[in-house]
Amino acid sequence: MTVVVVTGGTRGIGQGLVRSFLALGAQVAYCGRSAPVDGPSEALFVTADVTRRGDVRSLWDATVDKYGKVDIWVNNAGLSNSRKPLWQLDPAEIDAVVDVNLRGTLQAGAVVLDAMLAQGHGALWNMEGLGSNGQIVAGLTPYGSTKRGLTYATLAMAKELTGTPVKVGLLSPGMVVTDLLTRDYEPAELEKAKKIFNILADRVETVTPWLARRVLAGTRNGGRVAWLTRRKAAYRFATAAFTRRDLFGDS
Q1: Which residues contact 233 (CB under 8 A, 6 or more apart)?
Q2: CATH topology of domain 3-176+202-229
Q3: In the chain, domain spans
Q4: Cys-Cys crosslink for 84: which of 88, 184, 199, 243, Cβ 3.0 to 4.6 Å?
Q5: How far apart are CA 8 and CA 6, in angstroms?
Q6: What is the pTM of this model?
Q7: How confident is the model over 22-40, as pLDDT tens digits?
């Protein structure tokens, strides 16, 4: 049975991935800085801060103690910053975003890849986001910078893993309706933004089962699995006038 670890698995996309991997028959461990209120009981939860190598190693060890191995590790833990110009952001907020999104991915990656090489197999997946493809959005400078750097880091890891039994890949969920997507909008601005969200975005429960299936299927070293491709985005814009989508309604 495949064993999967998801960091930042207590909410949003991370929690969706945890539940999706479980539904597909995997054994799952996940972490967060605090325990979730209603996390799935059949998964192993470990309190961990991904910016601390000791915590990451504890998560690895706890998973191996329970399930015997780690086949797949998904670096999902991430933070976004308040939607403000860089000079208006609190220094501590900038540090937190960089710490979790980039430094945390590098520190966790170092621990996990070393352990996977020692066990003789494994696949590490790093989560892309806005900025990974070079898209620039005003007000999200720290977040976008970390995601751009994360893509470089992942491809560099892939080069370092060439010729080994361990692979690294990029996981791109696209635009997903979570609190990170809609935070800090004024009501009037949010209504305008929803027009684009209803074209390009999707709900967690739509995206994460697809991502989980693709992760379990695997990819080449340095490969990318992307939900919202340019072709899909173009099709949605082209058909938007004939397709009614309301991601913020009850259904």
Answers
A1: 200
A2: Rossmann fold (3.40.50)
A3: 3-176+202-229
A4: 88
A5: 6
A6: 0.92
A7: 999 999 999 999 988 888 9
